[in-house]
């Protein structure tokens, strides 16, 4: 059994081989944490870097994330009760009035690939729903996405709603999407901003202090 094949399979976005090698690794008694940290997360980091450098594109990133997710499903039952398995819990969604999904799903997949627990609450999400999800899942980070200039104002409404609910201090807020930039993020009081899936993970880790 060659664990490097797992790295290669995820990098190439091949679901079946990734699952197969993971199954073999489990049978051989390799620690789940080793499989995740040394092979899966490294592969997702590499594909993310290639994406950033313009050497890989959205379809490849999604294929890699799919392969990683498939392999991760096998490991999840073995990780119950292992506190160290997740870096933090992320609630992610696209703001009210905005139906864009791909970028958000890409970020969600990268987060999952890098050891975060992700609750993806979808598109066209109202401020109330964001607040409910943060409370219900006790989220460490809230990621808000908007792809239209007309809906980016909703992000500030979500942050205000968190304040009104008295939970703004409990959660780090990250924003992203085509019309959003660092200036806007700072202006509305967000804790972090990212313009791509790869750096979103880096920003989140920084916010979590890991």
Descriptive labels:
single chain, 210 residues, alpha/beta, Methyltransferase, Methionine Synthase (B12-binding Domains), Chain A, domain 1, Rossmann fold, 2 domains, five-stranded parallel beta sheet, 9 helices, 5 strands, 54% helix, globular
What does this molecule look like?
This protein is α/β, with parallel strands linked by helices and 210 residues long. The protein contains nine helices and five strands. The chain has a five-stranded parallel beta sheet with strand order 2-1-3-4-5, sandwiched between helices. 41% of the residues are buried.
SSE succession: HHHHEHEHEHEHEH
- Strand proportion: 5-15%
> What structural category arises from helix and sheet content?
alpha/beta
Please give the alpha-carbon distance between the first and last residues.
32 Å
Task: Give the overall shape, derived from the CA principal axes.
Answer: globular
Domain tally: 2
Instruction: Please give the number of β-strands.
Output: 5
* Number of helices in the DSSP assignment: 9
Spatial strand order of the main sheet: 2-1-3-4-5
Please name the fourth-level CATH homologous superfamily of the largest domain. Cobalamin-binding domain
In round numbers, the mean pLDDT is 90
Corresponding CATH architecture of the largest domain: 3-Layer(aba) Sandwich
What is the radius of gyration computed over CA atoms, rounded to a whole number of angstroms?
Answer: 17 Å
Sheet with the most strands?
5 strands, parallel
Percent helix, as a range, is 40-55%
CATH third-tier fold name of the largest domain: Rossmann fold
- Tell me the name of the CATH class of the largest domain: Alpha Beta
Low-confidence stretches: none
